[in-house]
Amino acid sequence: MIAGVIGVIALVAVNALFLIWMERKVSAHMQLRPGPMEVGWHGAIQTVADALKLMGKELITPKDVDRWVYLAAPIVIFLPVLLSFLVIPFSQTLIIRDMNVGVLLILAFAALSVLAILMAGWASNNKYSVLGAIRSVAQNVSYEIPLLITLMSIILMVGSFSLVDIVAAQGRYWFVLTQPVAFILYITCATAETNRAPFDLPEAESELVAGFHTEYSGMRFALFFLAEYTNMFIVSAIATVFFLGGWHGPFLPGLVWFFLKVYFVIFLIMWFRWTFPRVRFDQLITFAWKILIPLAFANLIITAFILKLR
Amino acid sequence: MVSYFKEVLVGFASLIGGMAVTIRYFFKPIVTVQYPREKITMTPRYRGHTQLVLDPETATHKCIACELCARTCPSQLITVKGVKVDAKKKVPWQYLIEYQYCSLCGLCLEVCPTSALEWSNEYRLANFSRQDNVIDLLVRLQKQQRLAGVAVTPIPEPPAETEAEASSSGEVKE
Where does [4Fe-4S] cluster 2 bind (chain B) (predicted)? Predict the structure, then answer.
């Protein structure tokens, strides 16, 4: 268990450092720029330098903040992120604990991050932060529903909430082949759940400064950043487990396949960010309730019918 | 119902179209020049400051120190001082341009009877003081000769000044 905790913390840190570098590289190449090039090979340790700089920064607590809530928010956003790693099956054997309610555990803890964002926005005593937090709550509550329903169609097919069982059921073919609509819906909802563009309204930098983490500096800000990128890893890991066959794959060991697939999904999400413009707030909510939820329900009902007929 | 699904499908197709554009750009070569490490060659028509033409036949400049360029310069920033080497030939022992005043009009190039001047392709022209902008074209010519691998033209000694010459020598600036 201790080894698991240390491993997860190391993974979270390295993953965030790598993802920030990857994000900058992907965005740069899509705009015909080279991206960071100076620190290390092709800027590979640029994020290490940035992280060291962030650690050296002063922790500013603005006047009139709701002190305890303000201080607790970065921790509250980070803890559920760590806990989600508990049930992710990295390979056939590498899993901290296989629970029969693994899916529920991840989704329940993912929902907690909304609370942290609301806490941060409210406690900051800043109108932009509150606006960002309010948007985040409305968005995450809306997008959690289609997310759960799309995953439910997979759970219907497998008949288990355990992530290990779901991966094991994909030995012959990946579920993305039988459930392509669910995969697209899931990726869309996951992008919204992680507050990524084009659904990055909670931190829309051109209108809300930085949204809920405007008033945070130094390491507290770094925790929000870390949580955001780790959340990206988790939603991509779920996509891998549910749709892309987890550790299954020829030649390479399961762990390598798992990480390859996860980073492919992350690349997909980054690709979205540099392709699509940010949606307006009414478009965002309309999209969730009028398109994603009906489609997810239709997908679930059709899946149920086919399973019944078979 | 049909229009709803049609809208969803058309919207989805347009999203895929957008993503196709960005992934195409993702694999295109980078256009940024990593400046201090790599430099681009300037186009032939680029106008840096002027420089003396390195004549490929004589492997030196063609300036005869007639001072026409200095006289025609609207900003009067050219200083040419010549010295006679024999009864007919005169060569410059000093050719200075004060580049900070230059408007790159090109009149000096047009007026030159021997076509001894040309535009250089120098673009790193930032300096810390005004004095750094004064460019000695004869010294620059020596650099050009070293780059071309030909014999370096020594800069001639200034003529022994007499009292009369000192007052009216090649001083163009008023």
Answer: 73, 102, 105, 108
